[in-house]
Amino acid sequence: PVLVVDFGAQYAQLIARRVREAGVFSELVPHSITPDEVRQKNPVAIILSGGPRSVYAEGAPEFDTSVFDLGIPTLGICYGFQVMAKALGGEVAETGQREYGATDATLAGDGGVLLAGTPAAQTVWMSHGDAVVTAPDGFEVLAQTEATPVAAFGNADTCFYGVQWHPEVKHSDHGQRIIENFLHKAVGLPASWNSESVIDEQVARIREQVGSARVISALSGGVDSAVSTALVHRAIGDQLTAVFVDHGLLRKGEREQVENDYVASTGVRLVTVDAADTFLGHLAGITDPETKRKTIGREFIRAFEQAQRDLVAEAKAEGEPVKFLVQGTLYPDVVESGGGAGTANIKSHHNVGGLPDDLDFDLIEPLRTLFKDEVREIGRELGLPEAIVGRQPFPGPGLGIRIIGEVTRERLEILRDADAIARAELTAAGLDGEIWQCPVVLLADVRSVGVQGDGRTYGHPVVLRPVSSEDAMTADWTRLPYDVLARISNRITNEVAEINRVTLDVTSKPPATIEWE
Ligand code: XMP
């Protein structure tokens, strides 16, 4: 792989993704990595990410610079560029001239292999206080800006390169080209990593791991479980059984989507557990959000364990034990829960609607090295319907936490209809790419007066909660066009009898969360 050394800024994951976009597999590692650990990973190249501080600041992220002695081709970016300059004998100084944001850079000469094919003057994205004022011996200066005499450098003999700006962000005009120049031209790596190669590699690995044993997968209807299940099915066919728990809190058409479209496109052997009555029975009378979540989580585990016991018994009778469980763990979860030095563990994992953690299975996690957009690409390559691959996040407890008040069958019907209208109109308006998700929330214990035809109504309000986000950790409310909002409102109040008012939530996260409960 290409190792991306994370100095704790938010850019390292982005760099790793850009490297993969260039068709080369990348892996994130903490800056505390030792030369021995680097050697064990046998990287084809190293990229040092940006970081939040000056290389001279107290508490600046440390890096064992004897890694440079290993002779592995290296690209330093921003902070990483300065770490490299300082370690190799250049000079890094506080110039007093901070550069932040779009900055004009000029190539020195032809820009070398690194900047080949990019214009002599270009806009780059900067974010730094210190600057490299003298390049180390043997290095050629490849670009400069007004405030930074050495904005890029390179040494073709050692294959060490560096840029002060951030080529991984879209605001740097030729950023991707620079990353590709480094990988393909300077290091000479082919662009051979893509969804097909990932599928082939995973299929081979899963076959070897599983042998002739049986495998269970829990299908939630979400993207990650859909793709990981399809991938395992591609590898081992009917040795896999997928379990889908219908808890009665799904959105309109979701169960059909899984039972019909998903099964048709993959051929997966599916067991649906019809548990709506049980769930609703246990949810009766509950209004507290935490109690709802706990109840739903507990019942989910019970339903899954029952299905699992049945399958284990069946498999035993046939002579092949169930040994493995598929999980759709993604790379950001792995990175975040690994929490290497300098990377804060900020994500609180929502386990509700998840699986019991004491199951006696080995895990198969075929998406462990992948980012979300790569998972979607693989889903498409595996032939999954766009409606599943492009799906927005939906919480495990489902519509249960979008009914403010007690969850009942009637209220679920109302919310399901309103939600389907909002989703259809957002899709029709081409806004799916712009919104992260748009919960529709039923204020079931609130009533408001309305007038319809010649009668007074006394119905319920719903809240539209369209949000834009990168990762759900923070979010902003999406500025939807008024005419789309008007259409959603008209249709919901006309077509869903119990709803006579549609409101819009205009709060960011923080201080509000995305869901209302
Ligand atoms: P909040 O409401 O915390 O939501 O801003 C952040 C993201 O997580 C989803 N979410 C959940 N997902 N179980 C889940 O599987 C849950 O209990 C849960 N609560 C919230 C939410 O839809 C959003 O994408």
Automatic annotation (TrEMBL):
Catalysis performed (reactions): XMP + L-glutamine + ATP + H2O = GMP + L-glutamate + AMP + diphosphate + 2 H(+)
Pfam families for this protein: GATase, GMP_synt_C
Pathway assigned to this chain's UniProt record: Purine metabolism; GMP biosynthesis; GMP from XMP (L-Gln route): step 1/1
Gene Ontology cellular-component terms listed: cytosol
Domain named GMPS ATP-PPase: residues: 193-391
EC number: 6.3.5.2
Keywords on record: ATP-binding, Glutamine amidotransferase, GMP biosynthesis, Ligase, Nucleotide-binding, Purine biosynthesis
InterPro entries for the chain: Class_I_gatase-like, GATASE, GMP_synth_C, GMP_synth_GATase, GMP_synthase, GMPS_ATP_PPase_dom, Rossmann-like_a/b/a_fold
Binding site residues for ATP: S220, G221, G222, V223, D224, S225, A226
SUPFAM superfamilies per the UniProt record, alphabetical: Adenine nucleotide alpha hydrolases-like, Class I glutamine amidotransferase-like, GMP synthetase C-terminal dimerisation domain
Any GO molecular function: GMP synthase activity
Active site: C78 (nucleophile), H166, E168
Summary of subunit composition and partner proteins: Homodimer.
NCBIfam families per UniProt: guaA_Cterm, guaA_Nterm, PRK00074.1
Function (record text): Catalyzes the synthesis of GMP from XMP.
Protein name: GMP synthase [glutamine-hydrolyzing]
Species of origin: Microbacterium faecale
Lineage: Bacteria, Bacillati, Actinomycetota, Actinomycetes, Micrococcales
